[in-house]
């Protein structure tokens, strides 16, 4: 190949490379370089670009070796940018253009501005790396945080609206008489799942539906039917029945606990197999006058039951000791709590609201209290409740969480409810 042809190819390659830089790596470069542009040749008058350097000195502006930075002409010479070059933006190591689809940064969408700036939404995300790092850096906190795929990419407001779902009580159900005279019988630790093994209802995942009011109500009632019948009526009751049929509630947008228990008392609920949970509000398929048979449900095999599962009036517990006695003697109870953003990242340990989301107002949720315990660390002891959440077994301690007891952490001791089931002990004969 002749020297002339070789020189021509090199010239074309350099021009192509330069144009490639302008299309793919628009900068800014000279605009942010300390000292700006240079009037004469200076090797230090350069900036990193891709795997090489580009220059902001007058020597770069020549035909044979055009190695100027992409913004040299516009910034150093005041020339308008070439109209045929599409600006490119860099965000988290990804290049994208003005006319490309926005890229996602957790729960926010980022677009490429014509001047090469990346412009992102500013939503507060349900979970993020800073939150997790902040929680895990507080060693005396007593619990640790983790990232959850289910929550990543979701807005915090979505978590409040669709992962909670219990309204703050306005009219509270009647409190029961105090039971503190039984306090001396309380053990240091108790867990319903150990005490009534095989009778407790499974931990559900409510999905992206604000239905904790229905899920926690059905779970507590299910446990108590099994416990009070001594295992003869072990049944998983349907939260979907409550979600779809309780009037004046908002379905997946939330509900009141007193209305849920009132429906349970007056009408009754079918089992989960008869009215399966779908994490969405749908048409009520059970009439108020239905029996299990007329509702199309399978009848129990151990007892002669055809009417729906009903309970007595709900009652509230007054203090820590009364809650413990109620759990130990009659089974799990239902508690409301205020949930803050850091709770979504809970992995393990004894939860307390952290400074990582101290200004957060949170939202109300309902859970199942199933026991309690004490953790010792040297001379210090920390009392805690054992609770089940309704976010699935992938969250927390296999679906459970522990939360500080006796200090009304997250208002969890403010409003605790229980009820007595109407059990049916007449056994079927062969």
Element string (H = helix, E = strand): HEEHEEEEEHEHEHHHHEHEEEEEE
Distance between the termini: 101 Å
Structural class comes to alpha+beta
Q: Report the β-strand fraction as a percent range.
A: 15-25%
User: Could you list the spans in which at least 5 consecutive residues all have pLDDT below 50?
Assistant: 2-19
Rg from C-alpha positions? Answer: 32 Å
Share in helix? 10-25%
Shape: elongated
Average pLDDT reading: 88
Largest sheet composition: 9 strands, mixed
Count of helical regions? 9
Instruction: Count every beta strand, where a strand is a DSSP E run of 2 or more residues.
Output: 16
What does this protein structure show overall?
The chain is α+β, with helices and mostly antiparallel strands. The protein is 21% helix and 19% strand. It is built from nine helices and 16 strands. The chain has helices at 3-24, 72-76, 129-136, 156-162, 192-195, 212-228, 239-245, 257-266, 320-330; strands at 46-49, 52-55, 88-91, 94-97, 103-105, 108-112, 118-120, 143-145, 190-191, 315-317, 333-339, 346-351, 363-377, 380-388, 400-404, 416-418. The strands form four sheets. Strands 8, 9, 10, 11, 12, 13, 14, 15 and 16 form a nine-stranded mixed β-sheet that branches. Strand 1 (46-49) and strand 2 form a beta hairpin. Helix 6 crosses helix 7. The longest helix is centred in the first third of the chain and has 22 residues, at 3-24. The radius of gyration is 32 Å and the shape is elongated. The N and C termini lie far apart (101 Å). Mean pLDDT is 88; it is low at 2-19.
